[in-house]
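Re: the 203-residue chain
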Amino acid sequence: MKNRMMVFTVLLAALAGPLNVRAQTAAPAQGKIGAINFQGAIANTAEGKKVMADLQSKYQPRQKALQTLNQQITALQDQLAKGVNTLSDEEQARLNREAEDKQKQLKRDTEDAQADFTRDRDEAVGKISQKMVRVIDDYAQKNGFSLILDDAQIPVYFAAKEIEITADIIKLYDAGNPVADAAAPAKPATHAAAPTAPTPKPK
């Protein structure tokens, strides 16, 4: 009986050993939590600033064309208002048709420009985002972070300054993705606005 009890005790010890090892292995790693403004980080990298500047330059001619078309509509409306008592019915009808046609063209051109701008912006920002995620992943592993949150997307009611890593990520991104013709350090970039048409004066 004594021998049987000793064997049973040894078996229990042998079974308990692997269980303890598994429990220790499964224990979660205790790491730091970080916060980043992801979109802000993208906009303030050298590459992000250049992308927005290039978009503004690319769409500036279309913006000017929309402004010119709007001015033509305003001029027609002014002509109609001033000649309400002097213009013939036929001339008023012609000017009205011309103004309406230009308003339709303005609406189409504005929508096309906004759609093209949004597509180009999203494509450019998407490429930067993919590289930014890799930078964040590498930074987190090297600095002992178990979780990094986007504080612009998730409500954060309090966060110590020490966990904000946006500036560090921008520096690392710029170091790993230099822009050949980057100018001297500039003010933080803002997202380029999509082309919009000025509102024509009411008839």
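The beta strands are 32-36, 145-150.
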